[in-house]
Design brief:
Number of helices: 9
Shape: globular
CATH superfamily of the largest domain: Spore Coat Polysaccharide Biosynthesis Protein SpsA, Chain A
CATH topology of the largest domain: Spore Coat Polysaccharide Biosynthesis Protein SpsA, Chain A
Strand content: 15-25%
Largest sheet: 5 strands, mixed, barrel
Strand order of the largest sheet: 7-10-8-9-11
Length: 252
């Protein structure tokens, strides 16, 4: 049986919304909300990988675990790999789930769903996508589109990821959700690869894996979790989570 480990990369040096992991939402730092949602998935241990002592302290005060990593990582995948080597040097965990630290409203169930394609030994990496329903998202370069071939209901094999509007022609477009479940060997291989031409052109790290011939499968989910990149996003997240906190029995 797979034994997943959830790692949440987080850093303070964001250009559009500085210090966003520590932004207070419904009384707690955003990174704490993400940590709680990941714990609620109940698929394995959860740790935050960070280069910030402030983030680590916020997580620890909430009862979580944090792993200190270097400051020079170019992406979250390399950061979680450093954390993985520190916390699991003997390789007990064979599936590593990378949950971005700016997804405070993520549904815990979709975190678990991301690991399902790895039951197929041919799959290296699994990720999520949702059908785009808002017209403005179809042409928004900040909304990454996933392009794939259906292999079963709600499951596709990824062919490409792009900031462009693709594919053309009639039919749905898919909004990629940047959450990844790696087979451990795939993550180990990925971090040894140099940045690829399409990765640099599109500014999408998952293209490095595709260009290297690695297989990524996509699970379709019903909703895109709110990613916090701007003050407007933060205001929306506060509204959502404050409403949840006001309802008895719901998670904050």
């Amino acid at each position: 049986m797979p034994y997943p480990l959830i790692l949440i990369p987080a850093r303070l040096a964001a250009t559009r919304l500085p210090n966003k992991p520590l932004a207070i939402i419904a009384g707690e730092a955003m990174i704490v909300h993400v940590w709680r949602r990941a714990c609620e998935a109940r698929i394995g241990p959860v740790k935050v990988a960070t280069d910030s002592r402030e983030i680590a302290e916020a997580v620890r005060r909430a009862g979580g675990e944090a792993v200190m990593t270097r400051e020079d990582h170019l992406n979250g995948s390399s950061r979680i790999f450093e954390a993985l080597e520190k916390v699991d040097p003997k390789g007990h965990h064979d599936v590593i789930v990378n949950v971005q630290g700016d997804l405070p409203t993520i549904d815990p169930r979709v975190i678990g769903a991301a690991t399902e394609p790895l039951a197929d030994p041919c799959v290296d990496i699994a990720t999520l996508a949702c059908v785009i329903t808002r017209e403005d998202e179809r042409h928004d370069p900040s909304v990454v589109k996933a392009v794939g071939s259906e292999i079963s209901p709600r499951r596709l094999r990824a062919l490409y990821f792009t900031r462009a509007t693709a594919p053309t022609g009639p039919g749905p477009l898919l909004h990629h959700v940047g959450l990844y479940a790696y087979r451990r060997a795939a993550l180990e291989r990925y971090v040894t690869l140099p940045p690829s031409p399409l990765e640099m052109r599109e500014r999408l790290e998952q293209l490095r894996a595709l260009e290297a011939g690695m297989r990524i499968d996509i699970v379709l989910v019903d909703d895109v979790p709110l990613g916090v990149d701007t003050q407007e996003d933060l205001d929306r997240a506060r509204l959502v989570l404050e409403r949840r906190a006001a309802v008895p029995g719901e998670a904050s």
